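Memo to structure team: turn this sequence into structure tokens by end of day. - J.P.
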Amino acid sequence: MVKSGKVDLDLQYAEKSEEPPSRDEFQQWVDLALIKDKPAQVSIRIVDEAESQSLNHQYRGKDRPTNILSFPMELPEDVSKELDMLMLGDLVICLPVVENEARQQGKDLKSHWAHMVIHGMLHLQGYDHISASDAEAMESLEIKLLQKININNPYLETT
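Reply from structure team:
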């Protein structure tokens, strides 16, 4: 784990791409998406389709790979208050799914990676998109954060 931003990032590669985002890019994205005022810790694991499918089936009951899974850390409140940093949890990102989505949707690959990381970080901080109003709030925040790094609205049709 390397401390170089607001978020201590543990980055794990179980699957590698020819042109993966750099550690600095991942760090920029997690730092940007940290809404809370306290330093935080997060793990990101880049996986293949088999691992993504297994985790998606085990934890969400969906027997297919998915672009990103978020696993928020669930600590007792009194323990959380005593820590110097927020223990956000883990993000599991399926490299082949993210690359295929970017290609199929006509999106820049790095921009899509940034969106996935920011989306997952917001989930770890309690945002969701179950209801229409929650989805609108989360998407609006994602769009604002991505604009800060000159990435266009990912929810617009692009193909």
